[in-house]
Amino acid sequence: MKGLYYRREVDGEYVFSDLGCILAIIFSPVLIPIGLLWFLLSSLLGGSNGSSSQNHQGIERRFQRRFFYHNGIEPQ
Question: How far is residue 50's CA from residue 48's CA, in Å, rounded to a whole number?
Answer without folding.
Answer: 5
